[in-house]
Amino acid sequence: MMKGILFGLLCILATSSTYAQVFSGLEEIDKAKKEGFYTYINSEEKYVIEAWKKYLKQVGSVENGRNSGALHVYSAKIKEISDKPVSLLSKVTEEKNKTKLFVSISTGPDVYIQTGHELFREASNWVEEFVRLINL
Description:
Layout: H1 2-16, E1 23-29, E2 32-41, H2 45-57, E3 63-64, E4 70-76, E5 86-95, E6 98-108, E7 111-112, H3 120-134
Antiparallel strand pairs: 1-2, 2-6, 3-4, 4-5, 5-6, 6-7
């Protein structure tokens, strides 16, 4: 009986670790505070930057920001989020032995996807898919 419960808990922990937790927040990107959301990835910063850049290339032309780890796609076509192009600014940094991926997606002038936005679930699912792919 106890072994069955322990096995069940281990299965739950193993499957839940493949999904990322996404939080709303602010981050400075290219000397400007941006609203958006972030997650942590258990991989080295340089690998996350490479993989994120490759993932972003699927949705548009990727440009490097002024700071290390900053990547931009100004007319991102992310069908999972919107039928219209969105502006995406992102930053990858290392924090306390974890890599932080911050994403700011603008759907219009001064309209950013964060908690409470009608597209937050779609945007966070899109980022969670990246985390799932990088953890394979």
